[in-house]
Amino acid sequence: MKRQKFFDATVYRLFLGVALAFLTSCASLAQEKLEPKKVADYEYRGIKVERFEHKTLPDWGAKNPEQVDYFYVAEPKDGPAEGRPLYVALHSAGGSGEEEFEWRKANPDVHNIYAIPEGFYGMFPDCGGNRETDWWYGGRPAPNKEITPEYAEKATSELLPVEKRILAEIAWVVETYKIDPNRVYLCGNSMGGSGTLGIGMRNGDVFAAIKANVPAGIWHAYDRLQLGEEDAPKGMPDPPVCLDYSAPNDQWSDYHEFLFDGVEKRKYSYIAYWGNFGHENRDEKVAAVNDLFNTFDWLSVRKDEAYPVFTSASTDDPCPWPEKSSDAPPGQRGAYFRWTNKVDSPDRFEIELRLATNDELKSTIFEIPTESSADVSLRRLQKFGVSPGETVAWTFGDRSGEVQADKNGLVTIPSLTITSVPQILTLTR
Fold first, then answer.
1. pLDDT tens digit sequence for 107-156
2. pLDDT by residue (tens digit) across 8-33?
3. Do domains 32-304 and 336-429 have the same CATH topology?
4. pTM of the model
5. Would you list the domain boundaries of the chain?
6. What is the 3-state secondary structure (H, E, C) of the chain?
7. Architecture category of domain 336-429 in CATH
8. What is the CATH architecture of 32-304?
């Protein structure tokens, strides 16, 4: 009897050991990490640049398990340092992650969107090397309004392998170079602008702010955000502060009205500039038609700070789409508003709101307003968390009241009059 018990216990221990080893192996596979290898480094206009290559990870679901991708990382001109911000640029359909540096060498004053700001790390992913599967950063390109069988897989709220891959590359760069995680910014031109909207707006837990230059299609963002549905994808974080400059006389900007309507209803941040400057990416060409587009300091936005969203603003210009008139005037939405965070504690929130002045904007095209009425929603609240349906008190100048958060915990104060004189909006419990 004792022998039998010993045998049973021995078998049990062997079985347990095998089971634990199997589970450990499975966990190891599930947690496989990206391990890029540096394959080249060189100097670019006084900046150290490194090229990395890596294999695809099983979790991404790439159709080709042997797929190899690459990206570039550029150090700040004054050398490597911890806690620096990261500037991620997505290339257009006419380029690649590899070609952007070469193009900038030959044309330093062209493709301004790819210029790395002073003191920033730069990162250039690629979606052209495996274009059979990765093209357009996983989204529907313009003007594909209809969801044809060719684009059915892309017209979803789920991230595709190329998006998962780019996000993993960014996460690796942030960790490896000890980037400030609250200052990661995404931008792109044309196809890269479409990718910026689609990848960026969906991942507000990664990006502080994003900037899309003449995005070639709004459907990537429309699909990932489920703007055709009542609710956002489950668990989606607040989007980053978003800038978009597009041209009504550019066919790649078609259907912008769907994006405008969708983000307005959801009360997402969307600062837009437009004018008949075509499919242009040179700052001076855009500024000749709309000289507001570069006046908002999007690279000062932090992911760990709240921001306001201004909707139904009396100063917003009429959407020029879908008419696309050849004589449509330049316009904007949300371009005049500015804010400064003051207090974000568990029981009190304060933010200063104002309009930018003409001395700041220096516009020769627009008549700068001194007053605007807008609904103000507050996103990315840090410590002053609000539960769905909770009632909070607010004050703004000589006005005050109470407001109930919506089903997602979003607080919106209606019809605030904002002027060039700063005033504090205060929320309390």
1. 555 567 888 899 999 999 999 999 888 999 999 988 878 888 988 999 99
2. 544 444 444 444 444 444 443 445 89
3. no
4. 0.91
5. 32-304, 336-429
6. CHHHHHHHHHHHHHHHHHHHHHHHHHHHHHCCCCCCEEEEEEEECCEEEEEEEEECCHHHCCCCCCCEEEEEEECCCCCCCCCCCEEEEECCCCCCCCHHHHHHHHCCCCCHHHCCCCCCEEEEECCCCCHHHHHHHHCCCCCCCCCCHHHCCCCCCCCCHHHHHHHHHHHHHHHHCCCCCCCEEEEEECHHHHHHHHHHHHCCCCCCEEEEECCCCCHHHHHHCCCCCCCCCCCCCCCCEEEEEECCCCHHHCCHHHHHHHHHHHCCCCEEEECCCCCCCCHHHHHCCCCCCCCCCHHHCCCCCCEEEEECCCCCCCCCCCCCCCCCCCEEECCCEEEEEEEECCCEEEEEEEECCHHHHCCCCCCCCCEEEEEEEEECCCCCCCCCCCEEEEEECCEEEEEECCCCCCEEEEEEEEECCCEEEEEEC
7. Sandwich (2.60)
8. 3-Layer(aba) Sandwich (3.40)
